[in-house]
Structures are given as C-alpha cells and as structure tokens.
Amino acid sequence: MTSQPEKHSQVPRRAVLGTALGGAAAAALPGTAHAEPHEQPVPSDGEGRRPWRLRDTMSTDGAWAGFLRGQDLQWARLPTLWYEGPFLGDGLLGSMIYQEPDTHRIRLTVQHGRVQDHRPQFGSGWGTCRLPVGRLTLEPTGTITAVDWRLSLWNAELTGTVTTTAGTLTLAALIHDEVLAVRVTADGGEQVTWTFHPEEAISPRKISEAPPSGYTANPPWTTRTSADGTEQVLQPLTGGGQTATAYRRTGDDLLLSVGHSHPSDTAAEADSLRNLRRAASYDALRRRHTRWWHAFYRKSFVSFPDQRLQSFHWIQLYKVASASRAGGPVMATSGPWLEPTPWPAVWWNLNVQLEYWLIHGFNHLELDALATTVRQNQEQLIANVPAAYRADSSGVGRSSDMFANRAVGRPGTGAETGDLTWALHNVWLSYRHSMDPSLLRDTVFPVLRRAINYYLHFLSPGSDGKLHLPSTLSPEYPVVPPQDTNYDLALIRWGCQTLIESAERLGIDDELAPRWQEVLARLTPYPVDDNGFMIGADTPYAQSHRHYSHLLMVYPLYLVNWDQPESRDLIMKSMVRWHALTGAHRGYSYTGAASMYAMTGDGDTAITYLRKFFDPATRYPCRPNTHYTEAGPVIETPLSASQSLHDMFCQSWGGVIRVFPAVPTAWADLTLHNFRTQGAFLVSAVRKAGETRFIRIRSLAGEPLALRHGLDGPLTVLLDDGTQARTQDLGDGTLAIDLPRGREVLVHSGSRPDLVIAPVTVTEPGPAWGLP
Questions:
Q1: Which of 208, 528, 602, 695 could crosslink 747 through cysteines, CB 3.0-4.6 Å?
Q2: Do residues 675 and 610 touch, judged by C-beta distance below 8 A?
Q3: Which DSSP string corresponds to 619-681?
C-alpha cells in the first residue's frame, strides 16, 4: 500500500462513505424551495436579510432538572434482585443496589470494567474473563419495613430513605472518578454499619460450568489497614497483576475505590489510594460529578408523548454513560455491573455492536470505547488470525477480554469469521457521525483493510465464474455452517465498498483497489429462496433464529434497502419469515425488527415490535430497572431499543437525512434537538399535530447535505443569516442543500412557525421505572 499526504482541499464534495448526493449540493441551483415572507417581523441586519434563531427552552439547569426528574427511576419497596435495583457507574466502576439475599441488609455491589483475569490459554470464559471484586453491605439495626428511593438522572445520584423498626436511614450515593461515595445518616434508634465482602476472583461462568482442565484458582486476598484508617483488600492474580480495593469511612461518609494493574503486582494498590485522596469527600466529589453530568445532558434533547418509553430512552443514555467512556474498556455483555453470568467477557457477534449504536444520534461520541479498543489493540487483532495470515490480516473470535484477545478460525472450517468486520462498521459509523479524518486514517481504513484481506485469502471462483466463500458460521444459527453465508457476504460487500471510498477520501492509491473492485463485481449473489434471504448456500432459514445475522445487508448495513423498489418485496418476505418462526426470539429480535420496519417508513409496525420487548408476557422482557437478562446480564438489548427509537425519529443512511421517517401515528408531537447524523450534522426538528413544523440543520464538517424532509407545499430554506440557501430538488421528497461548514439552515413550509425547542406534552402516561 502506498500512501500520500492527506489533502482535504483537493477532496471533492461528493459521494463518499455513504453519501449519495454526488456533487449536487456543491453545484446546486435554486429548485422548488423558495423564501416565504415571515409571519412575524424579525430584526433586519440592514441589508434586507432577516436572520432567524431557535428559542431553546432547555437552556437552563432548572429546565433540565425539571424535565429529567420526570424520567427518574423510583422505588417504594426494597429491590431484591440486581435487575430491580438502582445502578451507578462512571464507565469503569459500577454498583447495583438491592437486598442482600435472605437478610435485612442492603447490598451495594462493587465491580470494575478493567478487573479481569490474564490467562488467555483458558479462553475468554475463564482465562481472560471479567472478575468479581466484592460488595458493600449496609446493615441496619432494625428490620427494614419500607424504602423511598429516587435515582436522579440529572445528578446521576441515588437518594432516599430506609425505614426500619428501629428508625430511619437517609442515604445518598454516586460514582465518579472510580470512587463510590456513599453518605448515610441515622435517626431514631438506627445506626450505620458497613461491611465490605471481597469476592473470590473466579469467573462468573462458574454458575454454568466447571473450570477447564489445568485451571488453578487465583490466590486468596489479603487485607491491610493504613495509619489514616483506610482499609485495603489486595487480590493477586495467578496470571500476573493485582486488584486492590481501598475504602475509608469518615463520619457519615464512606468512600471506596478499585484499582487494577497488569502485569504490575503493586500499581493497583497505589491507584486505589490515589483515587480516594483525589476524591477528598462526598461533597467535593459530588461537585465535580454533577458538573460533568449536567454538561453531558445538554448535548442533545429528545421528547415524545409516551411517558414510559420516553423515560426508558433517557435512562439508556444514563446507562451507557455509566457503563462506557472513550479510552476505557469496551463494554462486556454485563457492562461494569458484573453478576453471575455465562457471559463474563466481550461478545463480538452482535452484543458489542448493539451496545454502541445509540451514542451517535444522542451526540455522545465521547462514550465510544469500541473505537478506541480497536485502535489501541491492532497488534492483538493481528495476532488473533492464524500465523500464516498475519502479514496482511486481522480478526477477532466470538468473545474476548477487553483487549480483543481471542483467536479467530479459518473459513472452510465453519468458523465465525466476520465479527471484526461488523465491529468496524460501528467504528465507521463513528467516523461518519464525526467526519474525523484521523479516525478514518488510523483505525477504520487500516484495520478494515486487514479484516477484508483475511476473507480474500479464502474466496475462490466457482464453476459459475462467481467468487465463493467456504463454510463459515452465521452467528447463532444452529446448523452445519454453510458456504456463502449471507452474514459474511454482506460484510465483504460493505467492507470492499468502504475501503474503496475510504482510500479515495484519504488520497491513497492502494494496490488492492483493483482486487476490491473485482470482488464487488464477481462476488456471488446473496442466497435467496421463496421465503427471502437464506442463511447461506443450500441452507434456508428453516428454524427460529433470535439473531438477524442473515439480514445484515438490510440492517444495519443498508446495502439492500427500501430506497430500492426492486428490493422491497425481498426485504418484506425476509422480515416476515424471520419472525414467523417463533421460539428462539429474544429481546433484540424485537428491537431489530423495529429498526427494520422503521427503515420501510412503517412506524406503527415498528412500535408494535418494539413494545414486545416491554411486554411482561414475553419470555425475556425488559426488567424493572430497564436492564435485561438471559441467564445473566446482557446490556446490549435495552440499548438497542433506544436505537430503534432513533430509527423512528431520524435516519441518515445512504447519504440522506430522513427526519421523522417512521413516527408512530399515536405520537403526534415530537421534539429533536442536536440529533447527530452521518455527515456530522446536528438536526433539530419539531413535529406537532402529526406534521413537521420545521427542521434546522447545522453542518459541523461541510459535507454534502441531502434532506428528506416530509414537508408539503412550497418550502422556505434559509441560512442562519436569513439568506436563501442554494438547493436542488432530488425527487422523492429529497432536497439537496448547499450548507457550508459551521452554518445552519432552516427548512419549513407555509408561514414561519414558532422556532421553539421544548418538551412535548405526555399523552400516554405510564409509571416510573424501578419499583414505584
């Protein structure tokens, strides 16, 4: 591969990486859009221009505190299970709060996303799994008779009371900078008693199977007390490294921190003590904590009239920010809240992808630990493929530790080989939503090039002249792995297209470009039968399948999509067939179907499928605290439900921004503000009485803009200084708009509407999440 310096000034504003406009926006001529007179007089700048601006009612702490209070989780009775209780986190340290089993104590779990074993010879389930740390118990004097708790999203803090037969305990708890801070005061005859219980450093997978042959237990922990009263629990690891938990009680406050180091056997001890010193006190930590969260929420806003789902949606944003931060460990299947589970690792064949989709629309790329994990572990991704292919290939097996340490099998052996390529689609989405050239240059392009190279070693021509792939696994479909799985064919097509477009964007004349073009031209078509997309060649979709691995070309890759009239019948047959065979469906089967129907513009069917995830009559519904379990915590499904909502509100695949493309009929009002889309645009839009009132778009990167607006009649399209934007009608309700970087455009029909960003009125009331 030869590389040339990046020359942004020479890159044409045209179709790259999913944008479908070509040069239309740059060379646009005035089309059907025109300037309408303002309904109300507005100030003029003296040159006949009539500027406009939004009136954002969500611009004060008071407005945010009031709105988010309506989304809080609440408890009127003591939770007895992890999926009923409050949860706290800062992307590393995590705690869930619920009753200690068979006691009148309250458990605060203490778990950390970086705490893992370091013995890869025993696989990700045992040798490199996340390891438990321990738990705090609050032990009242009396018997607990009632609780009154609220998890404040705005402050990311649990507050409330515990009533006992002896008196009352008033508590507050938060996590910030790897410190769990708890304040408990006692009234009446109550007293505050804390105990920390270290947990054995063994895989949570022990609930489902015995350790592998040759596995030896980690050594026991030791304890020590420093001169200032700080207690420490030190857990050495057989594979090297250490976990250290330090805690100190001062008056009504308790501060606890966890450190983990490898290969150092002592650094964790120093880290945990340093974290406590830096925290200083509950009040000091709380000031820093709330400052971070208050700034965090202001980056975007969404409101819609279903109270239960609106609250759920905001809780997922709180959850993902509690579980992940860029630069930190990629989320395991349970996030940082480790409980007994068969899946104490990172799963790459759906889980990790679904975990991170919602951060894009929510405008929170600072939570993207997946992109940083791929960037930081490129050498490990190379080491994961068989030695014969390491010169030019990379991959990752189905599950791994936080360093992506898991070998991948070879095509032809029935191995699951496409998971790295699918994960790179997530990283590519982060690029498309940020248009950060360093992310494309340093991560997406080089790693995707190697991931596709791995496939290229095994593609071979058949008697039909097409390129075919030997047997690989379509994730979770329980049959003998077929040749030409649709899972892999879709990823190969997406990968080759993206590499060609990325090289063009980066100004790279890559020696493999002709090979990528050849693959796109000769790759065998997707196997299809009368029921739609098959699993692979000679393997129909014939039994219930919770995964949509055979439908990736439809969603989320959009290679086969609703904008292709010739594909619509095939898409619909495939979706209907997928859900017609029941029995294996799980929560993400419903969220995936919701997003696919949202692509078709059918919001009513989309919400019908999404509601199945919340229906207690289903086998695996969403739980009271919005978490989810299948034999253990699996965090991805609730997070993907938020992405399903995003897909109803705003889509941006294929280079077209679609505003309110699949809003359920019952949701007449909806507000979006600073919703981030591909091309690095921030979209604000308001829907009232079932009609879009206005759309405002801000360009952060100067990319081509194509807008499917859903507006009727003549359009007004004004730049932020009040001048007409240059536009071109692309047909099908889509408008190309020339919008320079850093500028905003307002689009509406009819007279000027009120340009107000505000919460909508709830028309579908519902109870709070938790145990209200």
A1: 695
A2: no
A3: SSPPPTTS--BSSSB-THHHHHHHHHHHHHHEE-GGG-EEESSS--TT---EEEEEEEETTTE
pLDDT of residue 85: 98
Q: Token digits for 346?
A: 């990172």
Name which of 693, 689, 644 is nearest 665 in CA terms.
689
3-state helix, strand, coil in the chain (%, to 5): 30, 25, 45
Torsion angles phi and psi, residue 147, rounded to 5: -135, 155
pLDDT at position 40 over 90? no
Structure tokens at 573: 């047959």
**pLDDT top residue among 631 and 433:** 433
**29: pLDDT strictly greater than 90:** no
Q: Residue 501 CB: number of other CB atoms within 10 A? A: 16
- pLDDT at 300 > cutoff 90: yes
Least confident of 23-32, 399-408, 671-680: 23-32
Q: How many CA atoms lie within 13 A of 547 on its CB side?
A: 17
**Which pLDDT tens digit goes with each residue over 699-711?**
999 999 999 999 9
Q: Which of 44-53, 200-209, 588-597 has the lowest mean pLDDT?
A: 44-53
Q: Is the dihedral of CA 199, 203, 206, 208 positive or negative?
A: positive
CB count in 10 Å sphere of residue 754: 13
Residue 463 CB coordination number (10 Å): 6
- Measured CA to CA, the distance from residue 700 to residue 10 in angstroms comes to 19
Q: Report the chain's terminal Cα–Cα distance, integer Å.
A: 60
Q: In this structure, what token pair is assigned to residue 220?
A: 């026991």
pLDDT at position 34 is: 41
Alpha carbon distances (Å) from 293 to 385, 430, 702, 753:
41, 22, 30, 32
Which amino acid is present at 268? A
* CA gap 83, 770 in Å, rounded: 9
Q: Which residues contact 325 (CB under 8 A, 6 or more apart)?
A: 90, 91, 92, 366, 367, 369
Please answer whether residues 562 and 574 qualify as being in contact, where contact means their C-beta atoms are separated by less than 8 angstroms: no
Enumerate the β-bridge partners of residue 696.
Answer: 684, 746
Numbers of helices and strands, H then E, in the chain: 17, 34
Residue 19 has pLDDT above 60, yes or no: no
Domain boundaries, the chain: 15-59+659-757, 73-297
User: Could you tell me if 272 and 258 are in contact, meaning their C-beta atoms sit under 8 angstroms apart?
Assistant: yes
State the Cα–Cα distance between residues 508 and 489, nearest whole angstrom.
25
The closest alpha carbon to 467, from 487, 452, 489, 451, belongs to 489
Q: Does pLDDT of 48 surpass 80?
A: no
Question: Cβ-count burial of 222 within 10 angstroms (0-12 exposed, 13-18 middle, 19+ buried)?
Answer: exposed
Closest CA to 276 of 222, 225, 230, 323: 230
At residue 21, the pLDDT reads: 30
The tokens describing 503, both together, are 């090289």
- Which of the following CATH numbers is that of domain 15-59+659-757: 3.20.20.80, 2.60.40.1180, 3.10.20.880, 3.30.930.10? 2.60.40.1180
| Strands ordered across the beta sheet of 691-699 | 301-303, 670-677, 681-688, 691-699, 744-749, 715-719
Whether 141 has a pLDDT exceeding 50, the answer reads yes
The model's pLDDT over 444-481, given as tens digits with 9 standing for 90+, comes to 999 999 999 999 999 999 999 999 999 999 999 988 89
The CATH T-level fold of domain 73-297 is Beta-galactosidase; Chain A, domain 5 (2.70.98)
Q: Is residue 305 within 8 Å of residue 761, measured between CB atoms?
A: yes
Domains 15-59+659-757 and 73-297 equal at CATH topology level: no
Question: pLDDT (tens digit, 9 = 90+) per residue, 365-406?
Answer: 999 999 999 999 999 999 999 999 999 999 999 999 999 999
Among 245, 549, 601, smallest CA distance to 422 is for: 549
